[in-house]
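user: Kindly work through both lines:
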Amino acid sequence: MSKCLQTKDLTLAYGERTIIDQMDLDIPKGEITVFIGGNGCGKSTLLRSIARLMKPKEGSVLLDGESISRLSTKEVARKMAILPQTPVSPEGLTVLQLVKQGRYPHQSWLKQWSRKDEEIVEDALRATGMEEFRDRKVDELSGGQRQRAWIALTLAQDTDIILLDEPTTYLDMTHQIEILDLLFELNEREGRTIVMVLHDINLACRYAHNIVAIRDREVYAQGKPEEVISCELVKHVFGMDCQVSSDPLFGTPLCIPFGKGRCILKPVGVTG
């Protein structure tokens, strides 16, 4: 397995509270990796540290074998793009102005704005369905439209590695699938490494090559969804009883949680 991102003895903390404890993690190159786990388990914190937005208490993050702390901010931005959970844009910025910011890591006093930059920005707008909103102010958009504008910015950065923290936030079901399909196609067509945090375990199973389940400040399980997702994992990681079956369309694991609801057919094992 070729690795582009690794953590070595990584410990992350907020003050005295340890979030991730001495984690060793290998993220495969050219695949889609999804972090899953309960609320507060450290998924987003781990993603921020990998993106060098949070300094480790101990240990290191390696990018192509080199400690990310030794790289310049611009060098990291040319290799890796991140979409945080709640990004904020300057007031009055249009969608086009926002997406153009994705090209700034590629600019210098020797290399100014070019036709290629323009084409990449247009491709990003088109891919996210934001062409018609290009002249709209970002703060006037709906939550879903705003999220797609930020994803367009991330795509415009044109990096081999894309990190996304809950990219389907604020999106309805149709747009969730559109965005995840878009990321899947980028991976399939261009071999980009995608690392995401997702709350929906079924969507994670459908789109991920590699699942990383986090529990108790460490990696509980890692591997292909069909190899690691089980009733036992869901119980230990999420504290939830469920049945795991096969998705009838994709053959990937499908988690059906137990709980109350209108029941047409009796659940398996229920009598009377």
